[in-house]
Amino acid sequence: MVKKIERVSSKPAELDELSQPALFINREISSLEFQRRVLDEAKDKSNPLLERVKFIAIVGSNLDEFFMVRVAGLKKQVEAGVHEAPPDGLTPEEQLAAIRKIASQLMRQASEYFCQELIPALKKERIYIYNYHELTLRQKKSVETYFNEVVFPVLTPLAFDPGHPFPHISNLSLNLAVLLRDQRGKEHFARIKVPNTLPRLVPIKRSSGGVKKDGTIPKAHYFVWLEQVIAANLEKLFPGMRIEETYPFRVTRDADMAIQELEASDLLESMEQTVRQRRFGSVVRLSILDSMSPRIKDILMENLDIAHNDIYPLPGPLGRSDLMGLYGINRFDLKDAPFKPTIPQRLRKVALEEPEQFYEAIKAGDILLHHPYDSFMPVIQFLKNAARDPQVLAIKQTLYRVGKNPPVVDVLLEAAENGKQVAELVELKARFDEESNIGWARKLEREGVHVIYGLLGLKTHSKVALVIRKEGDGIRRYLHLATGNYNAVTAGLYEDLGMFTCDDIIGADATSMFNYLTGYSAVNDYKKLLVAPINLRERMQGLINREIEQQQQGNQGHLIFKVNSLVDKEIIKLLYRASQVGVKIDLLVRGICCLRPGVAGVSENIRVVSIVGRFLEHSRCYYFHNGGNDEIYLGSADLMPRNIDRRVEVLFPVQDAAIIHYLRDEMLAAYQRDNAKARFLLPDGSYVRNLPENQEEPFNIQEWLIKSRPKI
Fold first, then answer.
1. Which burial class, exposed, middle or buried, applies to 476 when counting CB atoms under 10 A from its CB (0-12, 13-18, 19+)?
2. DSSP element (H, E) containing 574
3. Which residue ranges form the domains of the chain, and what is each CATH number?
4. I want to staple 478 with a disulfide (CB 3.0 to 4.6 A). Which of 224, 250, 467, 528 is the partner?
5. 13 vs 15: CA distance, rounded Å
6. Full-prediction pTM beyond 0.85?
7. CA distance 397 to 402
8. How far apart are the two ends of the chain, measured CA to CA in Å?
9. Up-side HSE of residue 50: CA atoms within 13 Å toward CB?
10. Gap between the Cα atoms of 433 and 438, Å rounded
11. Quick one: how far is CA 182 from the chain centroid?
């Protein structure tokens, strides 16, 4: 929904002139446009087949989260009578109407493309996904045996009648709605939950996959949908009853966590309770098959208390996130080619397990890591050395998402056992990772680690590890700062940047930040770090304003920002103002972008590119030309109000000339050359794959970073 843009003077504008709603793209619509770009990767035949299936699953998973959090929040606003509109001017009701239209289209396109294009393509590669009615008698016999031995004992049919209330339908569960008739002709309704403890795609014939011994033809895989297997065997669950109708359905519930921190005496206990209650949120989406009968649809609508426009009929299959299971097939010829991450040049001749050598390398100059192209191993080894080095006095670290069974936690436990002072800021509100974080936070506490659960009302999203080491008569602080989490698994899947340094001023700033997090420190005069919510907004706006001034003085201003999301109204207005005075602005925004580029008199000097590829573009990099005295900041903060005002975030400066050269002249320049995976944002909020002038040879930034990038 694009409203008319009133003409804005091409002269430098007051910021109030740049506040008209038509200059802003709606956040939720932009988020859905990102899902469209992910779906495009599933349709891109240059991607290996199982990677395309993976992208279909990612779209499904992303939309699940979008409905659980964003749609749920908008529905709450409507119920509460909130009419306040975001910068783009759309009311909550208008946003929900636009979301339903776009999301419905995306879900249908994903389902149809999987069924019509990917299933036949998989079949050509001897991966067969059948509907139950397509099975041979022999295959049905095999599946029936599997049902009797494995599935049947797990199922629990739940009746709905005057003696049995409508059963609770848990969040994201796949279910079968069944209409039955008893021997007296009376109609009954039952619900069966499709167990998520069993594979959604039932293997019909066990096969290890791979290729035959002669290296020629891959072994075949045969699958059938679990819900169809259950539906075909319902008479075993309801003996003596006639099965009238059965249809699958899937429920999405509100999972937005409204933690009443001011009323909770113990934040950790509050989090545990909230995690337990998540599955009981109100229903925000009901996904059904196109073919579902009106009778069953009416029963579900009434008992789930859901409006007709929150029902999404689809051709199937429901729950496309489950397709990620297919990616586990042992067919490496249908996946991206593996590669071996490198070690940065400055660490190659260093025995990383020797603390003295590692620390000497850091003292010789800052060291940049560019994941996943550079290995995450030096980060783990940095912490291992700290845990084992008798000269290390203390380790302080912020932890946001580390995953299950994280090696980082094992290292911290070892450090505590070795008598180090270990302080860990654990973020319990890392969305959908809360339960994992709670578990190992408790484990750390039991071993004597000082575990802090963040500041009241602020989510701690910064990525900082501080090691305090005794050297001579004093101490030296060694740091690892990063754009990504201390998660060894995602470090191989996400593109991120990290840096080792022992800069005294940055170390002092980091100490002040940890004191702010763990105690009552009110330090706000950070010398080098930009720390939200203390000074990041002010400093970021100051840096953009400086570029405006440089441009007005004839120094050819230039900004390059690489972020996940650009939402903040005040930052967008400043970027518009910078464009108006002639500053060249290149924005690499992977996901949500609320800025409209190319608007006459406003943003003609702004170019917005989104890259969706093999790896999730996750790093944040801010480049300021500064009249030739280039400044670059890296860190955890996106340009969103929540990051700048309601989170603890850190941006850190890049000071080493060689690293600045790599980031500015190699990495950022190469990102702007991409014409294989890049999509360009148009003024109307849509994205195009290539601009007309981009007719050069295909250039894929991620492939270049794997194969040809300069070594740091």
1. middle
2. helix 569-580
3. 15-24+531-707 (3.30.870.10), 48-334 (3.30.1840.10), 346-525 (3.30.870.10)
4. 467
5. 6
6. yes
7. 12
8. 45
9. 17
10. 9
11. 48
Q: Compute and round to an integer the Cα radius of gyration of the chain.
A: 27
- The long-range contacts involving 212-216, CB below 8 angstroms and separated by at least 24 positions, are none
Tell me phi and psi for residue 514, to 5 degrees: -65, -35
Tokens of 175: 């279910």
The H or E element spanning position 483 is none
Q: State pLDDT tens for residues 81-122.
A: 888 889 999 999 999 999 999 999 999 999 999 999 999 999
Kind and range of the H or E element at 308?
Answer: none
Q: Which residue is it, tokens 């578990």?
A: 439
Report helix, strand or coil for 177.
Answer: strand
Instruction: Based on the residue annotation, tell me whether 461 is a catalytic residue of this protein.
Output: yes
pLDDT at residue 275, rounded to an integer: 52
Q: Which residues contact 300 (CB under 8 A, 6 or more apart)?
A: 177, 249, 286, 288, 306
How many Cα atoms within 13 Å fall on the side-chain side of residue 440? 23
Q: Which of 461, 480, 618, 625 is labelled catalytic?
A: 461
What is the distance between the alpha carbons of residues 354 and 167, in angstroms, rounded to a whole number? 59
* Maximum Cα–Cα distance across the chain: 92
Is residue 386 within 8 A of residue 420, CB to CB? The reply is yes
Nearest to 427 by CA among 287, 259, 546: 259
What are the structure tokens assigned to 614, written together?
């093999």
- Whats the size of the chain, residue-wise? 712
Tokens 């790599």 correspond to 662
How far is 517 from 511, CA to CA, in rounded Å? 10
**Contact indicator for 56, 113 with CB cutoff of 8 Å:** yes
Q: How confident is the model at residue 428 (pLDDT cuts 50, 70, 90)?
A: low
- Could you tell me the CA-to-CA distances from 251 to 64, 101, 230, 321, 435 in Å, in that order? 10, 19, 19, 13, 21
